[in-house]
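Q&A log
Question type: sequence-to-structure
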Amino acid sequence: MQNKIKLKKNDMVRVITGKDKGRQGKILFIDRKKNRVIVEGINFVSKHQKPNRTNAQGGIVKKEAAIHVSNVMLLHDGEPTKIGYKFENKNGKLVKKRFAKKSGKFID
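Response status: OK
Response body:
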């Protein structure tokens, strides 16, 4: 059984554990099956690449690797916060929205 990932693509997050602790970046990709995220500018790894049509030179390429979703926290108004859900009444319809537990404000 998978955990529900409350983060979305393009959310700003801060790394809370690991070698990049304290750094922040934007989420580029979420792998919901493996509970991992790729964050812009975080967790660089070196990949050895053979020469091909797009990269005729080949060589060592630096790229971002995935980190576990439990190692990042959403940034809302510059502060790391947990995420909750509330239902908001919009024109007679209930709409489920994310909110920051620290401030109580809606995120999107």
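Response note: The radius of gyration is 18 Å.
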